[in-house]
Amino acid sequence: MELEQQLSRAAAVIKNAEVIIITAGAGMGVDSGLPDFRGDHGFWNAYPMYRHLGLSFVQAANPEHFERNPAFGWGFYGHRTNLYRQTVPHEGFNILKKWIAGLGLDHFVVTSNVDGQFQKAGFSDESILEVHGSIHHLQCLSPCSDLIWDNREEVPVDFDTMRAGHIPKCVKCGGVARPNILMFGDFSWLSIRTRGQERGFDEFMTDHAGKRLVVIELGAGTAIPTIRYMGERMAVSDRATLIRINPREAQSPPGQISISAGAMEGLKMINIEVDRLKAEG
Ligand SMILES: [Zn+2]
């Protein structure tokens, strides 16, 4: 199907929907200027120091650094915390909010991103499932308890050495704290916060069973396909449609909508069609 047909079909589905599920992967952050860690070069362009050390994203995003060298572990996560705090969510977030308010849609967000950008854009905590956790929450490294608390730490990072100037401490035992994010090779991530969000999402889906539903998937790649599978599973129902927006991997199951574009660009293009439909009444 041509792009124009996909866009007008997407707009019609959104306008007729009662419920919108927004699912997002790493591609959602790129348009806000956040680095894409896909491939060693993407990661190394964002963090040249790790190129010198020959450390890939998978190797850097590993809890073992917090054990062996907390200043080094916090170098990567402290830098990312600061970056995500400074980032302004792109216009695509506002388009989604406008549809929710203007079309009276019930909504839920499911994201594999740990950057907290949906909250920053004004989406409420109760309507978000962060499947890999959040950098804005901390836990004990050991962990000594199930406690998860807000990350209010200021962690200055020397970008030349990727060493942190301050190590956040566990509020209970005083040991090293770490972000409440599922890392690679991670056996000590506390999943209770995410499990609570999952229960909220399951209840939402039960409460909205049988309603006309649209899943809009933004920048979720095939490398870690959790988000893609979720949308595909939901779209099996004949009252649900998946709109997949992806610049490189937009292919979608038969009958679903596939838009080959970046997240913000795709949302802007659909929004023009939504506005046109609304003007037509
Ligand atoms: Zn502790």
Descriptive account of the structure:
The chain is α/β, with parallel strands linked by helices. The protein has a single domain (3-280), classed as Rossmann fold (3-Layer(aba) Sandwich), CATH 3.40.50.1220. 42% of the residues lie in helices and 18% in strands. The mean pLDDT is 95.
Identify the notable features of this structure and list them briefly.
42% helix; 18% strand; three-stranded antiparallel sheet; alpha/beta; 12 helices; six-stranded parallel sheet; Rossmann fold; 281 residues; binds zinc ion
Helix/strand layout:
Blueprint: H1 3-16, E1 19-24, H2 27-30, H3 39-46, H4 48-53, H5 57-60, H6 64-68, H7 70-86, H8 91-102, E2 106-111, H9 117-120, E3 128-130, E4 133-140, E5 148-150, E6 157-158, E7 163-164, E8 177-181, H10 192-207, E9 213-218, H11 226-234, E10 240-245, E11 257-259, H12 263-280
Parallel strand pairs: 1-2, 1-9, 2-3, 9-10, 10-11
Antiparallel strand pairs: 4-5, 4-8, 6-7
Zinc ion is lined by residues 140, 142, 144, 170, 172-173, 175.
Assigned CATH superfamily = TPP-binding domain
For the largest beta-sheet, the strand count, sense and barrel status come to:
6 strands, parallel
> What is the CATH class?
Alpha Beta
Q: Please compute the radius of gyration using only Cα atoms.
A: 20 Å
CATH fold description: Rossmann fold
- What fraction strand? 15-25%
